[in-house]
Amino acid sequence: MTCDQLKKTLNRFRRQNILVIGDVMLDQFLWGKVSRISPEAPVPVVEVTRESSFPGGAANVARNLYDLGAKVHILGVIGRDREGDVLQRILRGNQVNTQGLLTDPHRPTTVKSRIVAHNQQVVRFDRESSAAILPALQDKLFHRFMRTLPQVDAVIFEDYAKGLFTQDSLDQMLGLARQKSKITAADPNPRRILNYRQLTAITPNRHEAFVAAGVPSAEPVDDVLRDTALMSVGEILLQKWEPENLLVTLGEHGMCLFRRGKKPHHIPTVAQEVFDVSGAGDTAIATLVLALAAGADPAAAAEIANHAAGVVVGKIGTATCSTEELVESFSRHQR
């Protein structure tokens, strides 16, 4: 893909409407410095200098889509608490339609808090509930989904195993989306692999792909197309899930696109430096789906997603990629 072709695709990003449904979170960061060890225990004392909060989980996918120019709707569940209010306020500030965020007074908003000192994460602590949401709330979520679906071009399902999805609810929503000829995509969770069948795209990382295929993990091979274990896993998942596109993200080895009836397509990483991989998968699926919705062919869409992921891993914290950064990344690697 040339820079001119990329720019034409990016110009179409603004016309796309994308729905994200899944487990929403609030990512909190406490930034500081370490100058001594605690006298109470052999642990560093972090002097906090500032705090920041960002959308996390499915909400981070929505944020990535907005920063790339798309119109975004989000469906999920938050608690009746300050963190839920903060998350809604941030998303609304990013012009994400939050009418589909339902409140459950019996569970907290999922919050992941990280303490970062000298650009290194010291510790993370989570506050969450992984219990299934109540049937009445599940029904309300499905009705919001039905009302929102006609307004969008694509649907991204984001399962972080926090109780939002059941196999039945996923099947219902996927069936309805297929009836309406919507682009559908999912990022599976290795702790609870649901049966994702006949989606437009699925984007597991290497570990998630091996777990979903039921294959023991194996060391990666530098020559990705000669990685026999990975090639076998790709074929297994194509048969198991029947997706149009299976994009396995491989960290430092880039990505590999599997499609039925076609040879696997390896896309080498373009990351210059890697500071923080958290959220890179969210960026990858958001960019892939947006590019597909904008008319890019799967190989080109995967290449764009690879560049976007390469941009965000070079940043600290939960980050996104802009269209300007995408153009700059493409230009740099075509020299």
Mean pLDDT: 93
CATH superfamily: Ribokinase
Q: How far is the first residue's CA from the last residue's CA?
A: 13 Å
Strand order of the largest sheet: 5-4-1-8-9-10-11-12-13
Assign a percent range to the helix content. Answer: 25-40%
| SSE series | HEEEHEHEEEHEHEEHHEEEHHH
Structural class: alpha/beta
Q: Please, how many domains?
A: 1
CATH topology: UDP-N-acetylmuramoyl-L-alanine:D-glutamate ligase
Largest sheet: 9 strands, mixed
Which value, in Å, is the CA radius of gyration? 20 Å
Outline: globular
Regions with little confidence, pLDDT below 50 for 5+ residues:
none
Contiguous helical run count: 10
Q: Provide the CATH architecture.
A: 3-Layer(aba) Sandwich
- Overall number of strands: 13
